[in-house]
Amino acid sequence: MRNILLLCCVLSLIGCQHFRQAKQQSQLLDSVAEINGRVNYQSNSDGGELVVAVLSRNDNTFSIENQKLLDSNGQFKFYLKPGTYYVAVYQDSNHNLTYDDNETGVAYVDSVGMLQAITLNDKAKYKAKPIHFAKPVKKGYAVQYSDNYNINNIGKLANLEHAMFDAHNVDMGFWRPLDFLAQVESGLFMLSPYNAKKEPLILVHGMMGNPREFSDLVAALEDSDYQVWVLYYPSGVGLHLVKDYLLESIEVMQKRYGFDAVSVLAHSMGGLITRGYALSHQGHARNYKINHFITVNSPLLGMQSARKGVESSPLVINSWRDVATNSDYVNQLHTQTLQPEINYALVFSYQDGASDDGVVALSSQIPPNIQREANKMMGFNASHAGVLKEAKFINFIMSTLSNSASAN
């Protein structure tokens, strides 16, 4: 994460056209609305997963706007641009994430059984009545599909040298996140084929970061008891969107592979995302546990520079609002504590003669209430991003992970 005030100062250097595009995309993200609800169902004996889909309609043809596997608690949530939508649930018997002619589904309907249109205005939150998947019906309408779903990248194999991780894409993800989502692959990627004998370790980058920053740690983990997955996301979007995507993605992977534990390591702003994920995870019954949770140089109390950027910048990036000191997102992270079963390691950095690591203040990296949750805490004399390449840091992480790797 770079100093946000510096980013404000260089806005004039990105050009008028790019400035307009960035501002338009920020405003569109500000208007994002939400549909959430629950599906009541009995376990399916044939192994077919239930998929919840949000559709738009043109006469008798529907187009999928987004879809996701139903989580283990039967709940779903979609973030959408303002518009009119329909919701349906189908049983994906052949696991291809497509509603085929021989599969059954049920639509969200009104009191007389007609398809219920849901119209969302800016920032609207629509809570659907429970959907009962008791008497599904055969496909009755044409449904068009698109490949532009992040669900398709959940568990996809990737290499850290892939061009999608190049610096210009990282910059796009910060300044123009909607362009990033349309043009660049994002998702939860595996760096090697799934190995049932190894516990997943999920690495999460921060603002204007990318998975390549973990290259040295990934190399050290090659012969360990862990298989590395990386979350790649546009760092200009609101953190609640990324947090929910991470929660949903790990649910998908758990259903796919059946693992009983994951570990998570996050750098900088990624620590805010993953703390939100961990608190959401422990709020419901899950089919897996969080083994190790490690935050590195994370602004756990937010950043004053982000607060000043929100208050004074001509262009406000959406993630700034959540990173800002005393933001709703940051404050929510301190209303709960981590469960003691989670092995939490709190890592911080400092530089000689300074009260920060060059970016994040020590007071935000190690607030007292978070220190009390930590099983281990370690500091390094290193810069904000430079710590990820320090041999002492990598040795500490390897030692921490080796203490209680889960046996599969």
Automatic annotation (TrEMBL):
The protein, known as: Alpha/beta fold hydrolase
Source species: Pseudoalteromonas spongiae
GO molecular function: hydrolase activity
Keyword match Hydrolase: yes
UniProt cross-references to InterPro entries, sorted A to Z: AB_hydrolase_fold, DUF676_lipase-like
Record has Hydrolase as a keyword: yes
Higher taxonomy: Bacteria, Pseudomonadati, Pseudomonadota, Gammaproteobacteria, Alteromonadales
Keyword set, alphabetical order: Hydrolase
Superkingdom as given in the UniProt entry: Bacteria
Pfam families registered for this protein in UniProt: DUF676
Domain DUF676: 201-321
